[in-house]
Amino acid sequence: MSTSTRFNPASVDFRSDTATTPTQSMLESVLQASIGDDVNNEDDDINELQDYVAQLTGKEAGLYVVSGTMSNQLAIRTHLLTPPSSLICDYRAHIVVDESAGIAQLSNAMPYGIVPSNGKYLTLEDICARVVPDFGNIHFAPTKLISLENTLHGEVYPFEELQRISKFFRGKGFKLHCDGARLWNAHVATGIPLSQYGELFDTISLCLSKSLGAPVGSVLVGDKEFITKALHFRKQIGGGIRQGGMLARMAMIAIKENLPKLAKVNQVTKEVAKRLEANGLVIRESVDTNFIFIDYTKTPIENETLDLIAKREKINVWPQRIAFHYQNIEDQEVLDKLVKVFTEAFELTRDTPELMQKHKDIVFTMEY
Ligand SMILES: *Cc1c(COP(=O)(O)O)cnc(C)c1O
């Protein structure tokens, strides 16, 4: 079986960093995978993966789950055992925006999504202003959990601010969770070991299927007691997998082979961002890692126009956000096309009154 000469659709796909395909080494590893039953805790490869990620992050235990959503939701459910309770996070956080109201349904909790006063990340002061201490006032839902996303929209959370927040809140009746779907990218961008991030949080969720390119899964890490309880809730929502060793094998290869490639991903993203800026496009979030967010209020790009031009150039894009991963950064011709597609769509929109109007109608209703 040879996959190396086959066209890889991931090489022209800039919609998401999930748009990777399993490599030959991943697929071949499946034949050596353990075949135990993970629901009975009997699969060697899953156990090894869980232990490995726990060890990387300096935690006692890890739990392999099928998605980042499940990982976050299990973490929240396990932290918030007894309602009524509330949690604090950024208003753009995946846990409130992109997880289908899971917090309301699964944890019966009240999330407060806060707008960062600096426009970038929540500071200790932002959080303090919204925290509800559990001092017995029956009107309130006490804050039990603070969840921080790193990276968020590709931006790296300043480590010093995480330290301040952690120092202030931990061990005082508040739990700290990190939605570290892309903590790998932050770690590579800052050079700060994952274990130092681990010291600041009670629990971290790390995606394997985003930047690292594993076909399936996330790992939730925390202390042993916490992970044992999370395992209980994983079973409750039908998240037990039987012979999942194959998935763990591929994920382990994704970590070992692809984590070192993220530095180049981050670097290429910055280069493309510079080229777009040179062509007059305005970029919104600072480009710390693998995303470019285009400021649509300042850079009109009509969606259908973008779509048509992208189809013509045979690349796959979404409006507004450009995502990079280790499989779409190698071919200079493809990167040139990417710049061309966004630049051309921008210029055409800007110079065509009907397209400008169409674009405005959409931007008016668009939050993200
Ligand atoms: C993608 C993502 C998740 C969830 O991952 P899925 O595997 O798609 O459920 C959680 N948090 C963040 C920040 C993400 O980007």
From TrEMBL:
Transmembrane segments: none annotated. One of its GO terms (cellular component) is cytosol. Keywords: Lyase, Pyridoxal phosphate. Its EC number is 4.1.2.48. Pfam families: Beta_elim_lyase. Its cofactor is pyridoxal 5'-phosphate. The modification N6-(pyridoxal phosphate)lysine is found at K210. It catalyses: L-threonine = acetaldehyde + glycine; L-allo-threonine = acetaldehyde + glycine. Pathway: Amino-acid degradation; L-threonine degradation via aldolase pathway; acetaldehyde and glycine from L-threonine: step 1/1. The keyword Lyase applies. One of its GO terms (biological process) is L-threonine catabolic process. GO terms for molecular function: L-allo-threonine aldolase activity. InterPro entries: ArAA_b-elim_lyase/Thr_aldolase, Low_specificity_L-TA-like, PyrdxlP-dep_Trfase, PyrdxlP-dep_Trfase_major. Residues 13-296 form the Aromatic amino acid beta-eliminating lyase/threonine aldolase domain. The keyword Lyase applies. SUPFAM superfamilies: PLP-dependent transferases (SSF53383). NCBIfam families: GntG_guanitoxin. Belongs to the threonine aldolase family. This is low-specificity L-threonine aldolase.
